[in-house]
């Protein structure tokens, strides 16, 4: 019985130490989430200006006819034939964030199977150790790999990563680029994001457009459109990383909060077991003493 009491005390100590660790990890993720949210807020402000300029140029070109768009970044037809596409996925470099990574991996696997059934060849380009490790373990090739980027995204690194995929698209090696990641919705939930990054589509309402750029020659519009399209794609890659990072910290806060609560429940359960074991030990000792007294008599 003494050995049993000792084992229970060791378990309680171990669980309490684990509880301290999960509490600390929750606090760290909470601090990082605040920074990631602020980064996302500033990024949205920049994105708003970039989108305004980008759609202004598109609107100007739209007025002279969609057929005049010579940029390879844009879809020439709604009924495009897709034979090969790239899927870019973003996962975390670390675990302990619930189903955050699993949700992204599951979606990528679903898309791969879906396109396979349609006879479309899929290539993967991956960001984050967890996703890269999963596909490596399952002998699925990942064309481009980047670690350390999802945990510390910068525009320069994001642009460098996406450029290879963009060049393949512009050269006709692929027909479409998709991006899959878990996005930040709020403090308690994440939202899986899956959308086409390239080609870009024109969706301008038939109304009067106000121009914020003063461009006269048409060829200059095409050059500017190409440059804006490249920046637009690069920035979308960067923002996906920022969004994913905020979602990762949000998921980790939830996971560590649940782990802390579970540890607390386990400590309570073990404490009850410890008290019962103590009572059993005391009762056993009293029985033995009484038995000894009776034997003496």
Automatic annotation (TrEMBL):
InterPro entries from the UniProt entry: ATP_synth_F1_ATPase_gsu, ATP_synth_F1_gsu
Keywords: ATP synthesis, Cell inner membrane, Cell membrane, CF(1), Hydrogen ion transport, Ion transport, Membrane, Transport
SUPFAM superfamilies: ATP synthase (F1-ATPase), gamma subunit
Localization per record: Cell membrane; Membrane
Alphabetized GO MF terms: ATP binding; proton-transporting ATP synthase activity, rotational mechanism
GO biological process, one term: proton motive force-driven plasma membrane ATP synthesis
Topology relative to the membrane: Peripheral membrane protein
UniProt KW Cell membrane keyword: yes
Family statement: Belongs to the ATPase gamma chain family.
Subunit structure and binding partners: F-type ATPases have 2 components, CF(1) - the catalytic core - and CF(0) - the membrane proton channel. CF(1) has five subunits: alpha(3), beta(3), gamma(1), delta(1), epsilon(1). CF(0) has three main subunits: a, b and c.
Function: Produces ATP from ADP in the presence of a proton gradient across the membrane. The gamma chain is believed to be important in regulating ATPase activity and the flow of protons through the CF(0) complex.
Identification of the protein by name: ATP synthase gamma chain
Native species: Helicobacter marmotae
